[in-house]
Design a protein that fits this description.
Blueprint lengths: L2 H16 L2 E9 L6 E11 L2 E10 L3 E6 L1 H11 L4 E8 L3 E6 L5 E6 L25 H5 L14 H20 L6 E6 L5 H13 L4 E7 L2 H13 L5 E5 L12 E8 L1 H12 L4 E7 L2 H6 L6 H5 L2 H22 L2 E7 L10 E7 L5 H12 L6 H7 L3
């Protein structure tokens, strides 16, 4: 074992034992075809014993594995060099950066500590809120919080949804950074709950220099949101009364469309793809287009004759095809449950990070269309004939 690697592992073991460990990340997959993108580790206490908790981030899912310190160090040793070429260890005493170059030559450098204290190791600790009502005046202006910053009883669900949403975006930004002066567009921004929260988090908490636009069809909501943005001093956030299909943004670095109805979701995704957006986040609503076209063959006919089953199958196929079309056009996608809102029970979310195009995804699209007698998916049509 290289001397540099052993030194890195020794520092990992020592920091866990001394209580100076802050976090560990493993990155730069050794194989370009690896489904495992990176690994993040933190210290947690489980049943009175300290463990290193590893979050393994795959293309379509995350896995968590907990190890006692000695076993954790051995596991990290196995990962470094075989699965990952870089390890970054952060402690309250020093930061350590281990790396293999293209020739698999190891190097280790140190830096002054970037963290002054260690995080709470409680496994079941209280949920940390990325958005807090005491510093978010827009929550009061939107009726979620009282003037003193306490969340209203009727605003609890909305506040939970806001923080879950920001948590998801924060995780995406950890994987895909935005360029300087990024333009973020929220298509179908509604009353702006999530739009305001995201702008607040990106500018005030992360210190990013961004321009953000909320697109909403209802002029009354647009006027309300622009007034709140002005009162909160959000200089680079504006709302426009416009149909998604008519909006011509120039460029979009992050595209968001939550609960845009039926093919409006496809309009939004297409604009994101055609703008080469770094991040796309959509929560689809309604799936009428595919349901009208879809019909099953053979045994499927016996299932799809039931309206509720036909509706659910249409949702599955519509969103599955959306994810595949995004992959074919250069996005690594994840499809997962968000949380329901006060407006709809739909709680599916599709995220896309700019990556390498997967042409083979189109063959899967064609196979699904043929199996269900679908002539076209509206997103496919938009991408084939961009306006």
């Amino acid at each position: 074992m290289q001397e540099q690697k052993q030194s890195f592992l020794d520092q990992l073991s020592e920091s866990a034992a001394k209580g100076t460990f802050v976090k560990l990340t493993l990155s730069k997959p050794a194989s370009k075809s690896s489904e495992l993108h990176n690994i993040y580790a933190r210290l947690v206490e489980i049943k009175g014993q300290l463990h290193l908790s590893f979050t393994l981030r795959y293309a379509r899912r995350d896995e968590t594995k907990n190890y006692l310190p000695a076993e954790a160090v051995k596991t990290v040793s196995d990962w470094l060099g075989k699965d990952f070429l870089q390890g970054d260890l952060y402690t309250t005493e020093k930061d350590y950066f281990f790396q293999y170059n293209k020739k698999r030559e190891a190097s280790l450098r140190t830096a002054s500590p970037s963290h002054a204290s260690t995080p709470n190791a409680g496994h079941d600790k209280a949920k940390k809120r990325l958005i807090t009502a005491d510093t978010a005046n827009y929550l009061h202006l939107l009726g979620v919080a009282n003037a003193d910053g306490t969340i209203k009883k009727e605003g609890q669900k909305k506040f939970k949804q806001i923080n879950k949403y920001i948590e998801i975006i924060d995780n995406l930004l950890a994987q895909q950074a935005l360029p300087p002066k990024a333009h973020i567009v929220d298509m179908g921004s509604g009353k702006g709950y999530l739009t305001f929260a995201l702008y607040d988090y990106l500018t005030r908490k992360l210190g990013l220099d961004i321009e953000m636009t909320g697109i909403e069809l209802r002029p009354a909501l647009v006027d309300l949101c622009n007034d709140i943005a002005s009162k909160c001093g959000f200089e680079h956030l504006r709302f426009a009364a416009q149909d998604i299909r008519d909006y011509q943004p120039g460029h979009i670095d992050m595209l968001i469309a939550l609960h845009a109805c039926d093919t409006a979701t496809d309009e939004a995704i297409a604009k994101g793809i055609l703008s080469d957006s770094a991040i796309i986040v959509v929560a689809p609503c309604c799936h009428k287009q595919i349901r009208k076209e879809m019909h099953g063959h053979g045994d499927m006919q016996a299932i799809l004759k039931h309206g509720i089953l036909e509706e659910r199958q249409a949702e599955l196929i519509t969103d599955g095809l959306r994810a595949l079309l995004m992959e074919a056009n250069g996005y690594a996608t994840k499809v997962f449950e968000f949380i329901s809102t006060e407006h709809t029970s739909k709680n599916l979310m599709i995220t896309g990070l700019r990556a390498k195009a997967q042409p083979e995804a189109m063959a899967k699209v064609e196979a699904i269309k043929q199996a269900y007698g679908i002539k076209h998916h509206f997103l496919e049509q938009l991408l084939a004939t961009p306006s």
